[in-house]
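Recap from last week: sequence in, structure out.
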Amino acid sequence: MPPGEYLLVEYLGARVVDRTPVTVTDRSDGDAIGTAAASGASIDQVAAFVARSGRRLSYMSNDTVDIWVTATNTNPFPGRPVADVNVTVTVNRPDGGQDVFQVNTGSDGTAAVPYSNTSSLGRYRVSVSTSDSSDFTSTRRTTFFVGPVTDFTTGFGHLTPIGDPVNASVRTLAGYQPVNGSQEDIRITRPDGTSVTRTTVTDSSGFGDVSFTPTQGGLYRVSLEGSTTASQRRIVATDLVAQTSVNGRQFAEVAPGKRVAITGAVREDGAGPRRATPRPRLGPG
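Predicted structure tokens:
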């Protein structure tokens, strides 16, 4: 794991209940990513990392973002870091501009770019490359966001009965902090192509909710309008949905005509347990 700032996130169901910042320090003996680096070895992968990548966490405007770079010889797996590699780091900003840096990996096979040109809000795309090896074949890019970001906090499941309400919950964060009073528009696109937009305003914890009731059979697409994360969820509405549960907890949803395999002890109401592998078929036939 490259040195840098990481965040351990604990979930309870779909809700975040704890966040613990963790700092991984630099190690001169190369143990930061596994084994001592080999200077002059062939390189087949370079990669970029940031602490807050993805859709759910962001940086504040004008924060300095540490972009960590690794150069690796991945044969044999899981690979070995390589020192003294010149890596080109390119950052494409949301305002259309671009910043390019040249760094050399250190004795542990890593290098860092302290990136501070973060006044523009939105998505930053980071790519890396090297001309130091003819064996170079791949890169691992990364992205990060500056400013408030909004994403869905739950998946809806993949099936729902027609006529049953579906709840869509979102959360807006800026850095690690929830954003209160953020207006978020959620577009629901029906199977026939028509759509409706519902609006929610986030509370003091950054959460907002909207609900809708499917009236058509087929695929519904639920997307955040104008969100930098371009997040979307899908759910299929159908006439009949069977829900199986184990010890009171929902286990699976099944559409008509699909088979369900349940193994283990099965207890009928008023009777003792019995061993069975029932394979019920839902729907006609």
